[in-house]
Every structure is written in structure tokens, then in C-alpha cells.
């Protein structure tokens, strides 16, 4: 029996050696997980990765929302050109004083007549109408630019969600591999009486649970790919390469500076400014609608006479009479005033919303950056130290196997949270770029890797 105990102890030490191999490098396991999504042995290379900058380029070319917004802007610009001209002239041809039946000209009254009439807006109304149309077309162009930035932010959000899910899948695969190794160790130790059967069962349950999580997260990857494909009007499948983070900026301007840039550069706010300017011009135009418009006309007639063809001409001048001013022109003034008040209120609300969203996105960016630094400098190193301590204690029977597994699961959970914080930083930056209407960093330049950031 004494000899058998030493054999069991030697087997236990051998099994612990396997544990050392399984748990000896938790950092690499958590940060550069091996999975079917990523490259084996590390993060994906730039040549075999899905890059955010290339998705931005694709969105500009293929996004249905961007194409629809740009087409609307072109249509409004073309429409504005039509307002710069007065109404089309009216041409009338008359055959006057004809005999019935036969329709021959009556002598001496029968004649053929041609009349041309042209309405000319007065008091600068034509120029004001053209100004309203031109400024509103400019506003629609700014709205199209806002749509492009919104699509860009949506693409970024889907990309970073895809990155987070892929990192979680990789960590889950690595965790399951470690659990399978531990389950083998526990079974071998149980056979020699050095571990309870509960350890074996618990390890197998953990392997099954990790398999379930992998299935769920792989489905989440398909959801993220579908969302990305919907924004870009293209299909993504299992063969899509893994997402790689771009190199984020180390610093940003202060929050007041970002707010000032957003208030000056956001396309939606510039569209609001254009709408207010158009409302001002429309109000001036409505106030001048009571001024009559002038209509000029020329009339030419001819008839046969004893001395040959007799020709005659007439000039006419007319004016519109606002006899329905109480029901037409005056309500137009009230409408223009209300539309201007609405445009001013909308612009004020958009400015307030922009400041609030800039503040929220900046706070999210700061939180993500600070927590990432905390995780990399303190949380993850301490969690990994806890795994090493639990392993050393387990060697001498100080803790059970489940304590070791729980500590390793904690490391993996923190690694997943770190990936979520990286995605949160990218989403906050995309939100700030959309609000300011300008890029804050080059999305085509890849990061060195999370462990070096």
C-alpha cells in the first residue's frame, strides 16, 4: 500500500505538469485565442483581416441610404434651377369672326389673330423664390452628407460588435480547450483516488457549457455580419475574414473643443442653418405677395382686304389683383412666420442634442480608455496571478480543482470585457466623427495589437 501511494503521488505530479502546460500562459490564451475565425497562433494579419477603412470605402459606393440621399440632393438642386425663371409665356392663336357653316372669314370683320402674354413677377419675388429654392437645395445636400456620416457610424458600430464577438468566440474556444485538458487531468487523478468524482463531473459540465457559449456567440457573429451586410448591400458569410482594430488616437481635443467643432461642422446643423435662411427669404417673399404682378402682351392680327392683306398689332399691360388677400396672401404670411419659428426651434434643438451627444460620446470614450488601462495594468495581471497562486496551492492540496477553474474563468471573463471596452472606444470615436462631420483618425491603419496598446 505504501508503494501504491507513492505511485499515485507520482501520477498526481505528472497530471499537475499537464496543468502547468494548460495554465502556464493565460495571457496569450486570453488575448490571442485560437479559433476557426482567427489565424492560428495570433491576431489576424492585415492581409487576412476585415479592415474598417475598406468598409468605409465600400459604404460610400454601395450603401442604398447614401445613394438615395445623394439622388434626392441632385433632384432638389435641379428643381432649384427651374425657379430662377419667370412663368412660361402664353401663346394664343385665334380665328376671329368666321361664317357658319363653312368657317370662312366674314367681310370685313374676319381675321386671324396671334397673341403672346408674359407674366412678370414684381418686387423681387422671382429672386426671392430662387433664393428659397437654392438655399433649401443646399440644406438637402447637407442632409445627404449627414446620412453618409450616419451610415458610416452604423458600419463602425457593426464592425466593432463583430470584433467583440469574434474575440469572445476565440476566448471561448481556448477556454474549452483548457477545460478539456483539466477534465482529462481530473479523470486520471480520480482513477488513482487523488480527486473526487465531483471534480470530473464539474469539469465535463464546464466543457459542455463552453460548447454552448461557442454556438451562441457564433450565431451572434452571423447577426453582426448580417447587420453589416445590410448597411453595405452585400453578403458576408463564414468565409469573411476576422475584424482587426484600427489604430485609435492616443488623445482627443477637450470636450469643449469637440463641441465647438461639432456645432460648426456637423452637416445636420448646417442644413438647419440653411433651412432658417430659406425661411427668412420665404417670409420676405410672403410679405410681398400682396404686390400685384405685371402681365405684358402683344397681339398681331391680319385679314384680307381690297388693297391686299391688312395687318394690325396691339400691346397690352395687365396686373394681378389680390381680391382674395384675406384668404390667400395674408395666410401665406402667417404660414411663413410659423415655418420660420419651426426652423429656428428645430435648429436650437439639434444644437442642444449635438452638445449632449458629444458629451456622452466623449464620456464613453474616456471610460473605455481608462478601464482598458486599468484592465491591462491591474485587473488582468492580478487575475492571472490568482491563477498562478491557485495552481501552486493546488499542487500541495491547498485548494480544490474548481477554485483553479473559477480563477481561469475569471481571467477569460476579464479578457472578454477588455475586448468589449475596445469596441466601446471605437463606437464612441465613430459617434464623435459623425457629430463633427470629420475624421479623428485613419481607419485604414491597423493597430499593433491589444497587448501593445
TrEMBL record:
Task: Report the leader peptide range.
Answer: 1-30
Q: Does the keyword Amino-acid biosynthesis apply?
A: no
Record's keyword terms, sorted: Signal
Give this protein's Gene Ontology molecular function annotations: efflux transmembrane transporter activity
Q: Which InterPro entries match?
A: MdtP/NodT-like (IPR010131), OMP_efflux (IPR003423)
Q: Carries keyword Protein biosynthesis?
A: no
Q: What's the family?
A: Belongs to the outer membrane factor (OMF) (TC 1.B.17) family.
Recorded protein name is TolC family protein
What is the species of this protein? Pseudogemmatithrix spongiicola
Amino acid at each position: 500500500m505504501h508503494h501504491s501511494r507513492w505511485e499515485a503521488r507520482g501520477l498526481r505530479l505528472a497530471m499537475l505538469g499537464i496543468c502547468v502546460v494548460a495554465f502556464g500562459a493565460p495571457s496569450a490564451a486570453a488575448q490571442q485565442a485560437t479559433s476557426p475565425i482567427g489565424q492560428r497562433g495570433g491576431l489576424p494579419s492585415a492581409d487576412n483581416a476585415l479592415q474598417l477603412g475598406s468598409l468605409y470605402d465600400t459604404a460610400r459606393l454601395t450603401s442604398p441610404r447614401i445613394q438615395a440621399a445623394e439622388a434626392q440632393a441632385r433632384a432638389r438642386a435641379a428643381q432649384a434651377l427651374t425657379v430662377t425663371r419667370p412663368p412660361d409665356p402664353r401663346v394664343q392663336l385665334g380665328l376671329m369672326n368666321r361664317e357658319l357653316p363653312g368657317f370662312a372669314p366674314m367681310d370685313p370683320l374676319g381675321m386671324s389673330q396671334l397673341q403672346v402674354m408674359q407674366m412678370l413677377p414684381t418686387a423681387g419675388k422671382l429672386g426671392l423664390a430662387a433664393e428659397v429654392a437654392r438655399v433649401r437645395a443646399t440644406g438637402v445636400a447637407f442632409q445627404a452628407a449627414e446620412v453618409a456620416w450616419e451610415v458610416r457610424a452604423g458600419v463602425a458600430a457593426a464592425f466593432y460588435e463583430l470584433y467583440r464577438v469574434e474575440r469572445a468566440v476565440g476566448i471561448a474556444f481556448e477556454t474549452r480547450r483548457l477545460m478539456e485538458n483539466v477534465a482529462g487531468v481530473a479523470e486520471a487523478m480520480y482513477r488513482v483516488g487523488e480527486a473526487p468524482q465531483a471534480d470530473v463531473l464539474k469539469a465535463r459540465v464546464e466543457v459542455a457549457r463552453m460548447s454552448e457559449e461557442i454556438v451562441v456567440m457564433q450565431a451572434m457573429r452571423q447577426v453582426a455580419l448580417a447587420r453589416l451586410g445590410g448597411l453595405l448591400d452585400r453578403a458576408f458569410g463564414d468565409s469573411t475574414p476576422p475584424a482587426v482594430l484600427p489604430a485609435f488616437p492616443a488623445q482627443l481635443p477637450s470636450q469643449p473643443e469637440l463641441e465647438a467643432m461639432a456645432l460648426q461642422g456637423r452637416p445636420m446643423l448646417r442644413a438647419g442653418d440653411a433651412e432658417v435662411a430659406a425661411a427668412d427669404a420665404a417670409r420676405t417673399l410672403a410679405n410681398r405677395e400682396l404686390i400685384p404682378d405685371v402681365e405684358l402682351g402683344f397681339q398681331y392680327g391680319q385679314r384680307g382686304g381690297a388693297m391686299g392683306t391688312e395687318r394690325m398689332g396691339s400691346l397690352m399691360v395687365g396686373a394681378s389683383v389680390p381680391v382674395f388677400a384675406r384668404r390667400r396672401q395674408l395666410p401665406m404670411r402667417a404660414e411663413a412666420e410659423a415655418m420660420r419659428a419651426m426652423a429656428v426651434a428645430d435648429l436650437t434643438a439639434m444644437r442642444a442634442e449635438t452638445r449632449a451627444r458629444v458629451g456622452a460620446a466623449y464620456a464613453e470614450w474616456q471610460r473605455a480608455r481608462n478601464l482598458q488601462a486599468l484592465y491591462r495594468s491591474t485587473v488582468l495581471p492580478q487575475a492571472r496571478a490568482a491563477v498562478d497562486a491557485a495552481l501552486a496551492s493546488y499542487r500541495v492540496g491547498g485548494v480544490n480543482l474548481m477554485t483553479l477553474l473559477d480563477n481561469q474563468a475569471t481571467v477569460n471573463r476579464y479578457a472578454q470585457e477588455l475586448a468589449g471596452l475596445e469596441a466601446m472606444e471605437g463606437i464612441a470615436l465613430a459617434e464623435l466623427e459623425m457629430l463633427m462631420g470629420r475624421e479623428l483618425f485613419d481607419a485604414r491603419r491597423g493597430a499593433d495589437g491589444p497587448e501593445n496598446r
